[in-house]
Amino acid sequence: xxxxxRFSPEVRERAVRLVQEHRGEYPSLWAAVESIAPKIGxxxxxxxxxxxxxxxxxxxxAGVTTSEAQRVKELEREVKELRRANEILKLASAFFAQAELxxxxxx
Length: 107
Fold this sequence. Notes:
Layout: H1 9-22, H2 29-40, H3 44-58, H4 66-106
Helix pairs in contact: 1-2, 1-3, 2-3
């Protein structure tokens, strides 16, 4: 299991919900996160990242949503594939152009 998927989505959601529900009981967001993170079994900075990303996804914090980030990632992958295909087509075109010139010179 890779590092980013160590915790299931259900555990992440539960941890974020705990922070949001108990946020008022602590003097700061960080204090709430530090208190709840050990109960979940993660480090506080990871839980804070989950809380912030959830706030972005729900629109209560500015930033790039998870779906937007995924879409950008997919588009970047597609661009990379298209550039690779374009390079292959350029090389093939040059190869066949050279072959055509060689054929004409031999005739």
